[in-house]
Amino acid sequence: MQEKMFTIPAPFSLPQTLDCGQAFRWAPVPGQPGAWQGVAQGQALTLWESQGEVSFACTQEDFDTLWAPYFDLAEDYAQKYAALSSMSPILAQAAAFAPGIRILRQEPWEALCSFIVSQNNNIPRIKGILARLCEGWGQPIPGAGQYAFPTPQALAGETPETLAPLRAGYRAKSLIDAAQKVAAGQVDLTAIAQAPLEDARQQLQKITGVGPKVAECALLYGFHRTQCFPLDVWMKRAMQVLLPGFSPGDFGGNAGLAQQLIFHYSRMHPELFAA
DNA sequence: AACCAGGGTGATG
DNA sequence: CATCACCATGGT
């Protein structure tokens, strides 16, 4: 593993991007301020930022083929932020509060499972369940002491009883249903990636425990459908209070980023919604 | 100890 | 179509 240094175009912030609620398998490295570690695409990665630069502990090839796409580095986020900020003062405020969020290109299957687990759940516990899922059912990553996200095939034969150690509650049966339907090709993630958005939503919602919100999250974070705009309890409240009169369609291809900015801003300012 | 959590489902008005 | 109890677990 060769350590390389790459300069990432602003705006880009690791804590904002990795801990804003879009991904659940990244954590700060204890005792190393600015450093984060996690697993995606079957690979473990440590990266850190200092003095406006982000460094990746990986080879040039892995950076080019895996991590640059994952962090959506080809996209011009300065332009997206500017476009959203011009739409409303509140949106400009949310953008200024977290100017370094990027929408990660996560794997479809992992994103689907992650947001199945997220239903009626809180983020600390979501992270714990997913960590146990990977440790118990994922492939170990050589030399990293970490585990890849388990494949659909690895979960398709499980039962709620055998998944009990996850402590996922009633969501376990949804994970199993997703694994079985994906493994059998009844839900075709490759086809969904190419399908018209409305068809893609419908396909995903064939899975037990996948409704409009979970499907929207999977499509935004796992399929990079950037016009998706997941509406959870926080977002519904935030739209009412902060952006009355706006609808998701108003944001076009920047809807996903807009949603993440508003979500994060609202979570960090709960006093805005006091009774 | 209660209340709540990045909801979905199935059963009723 | 709108509402509502219920779901399993544990964080705060």
Provide keyphrases for this structure.
single chain, 275 residues, alpha+beta, TATA-Binding Protein, Endonuclease III, domain 1, five-stranded antiparallel sheet, two-stranded antiparallel sheet, 13 helices, globular, DNA-binding
Description:
A hairpin with a 2-residue loop joins strand 4 (43-50) and strand 5 (53-56). 38% of the residues are buried. The protein has helices at 14-18, 60-70, 77-85, 89-97, 108-117, 123-137, 152-156, 171-183, 189-194, 197-204, 212-222, 233-242, 255-268; strands at residues 4-6, 26-28, 35-40, 43-50, 53-56, 140-141, 146-147. Among the domains are: 3-74, TATA-Binding Protein, CATH 3.30.310.260; 108-222, Orthogonal Bundle (Endonuclease III, domain 1). Helix 5 (108-117) packs antiparallel against helix 8 (171-183). The termini are far apart. By secondary structure, it is an alpha+beta fold.
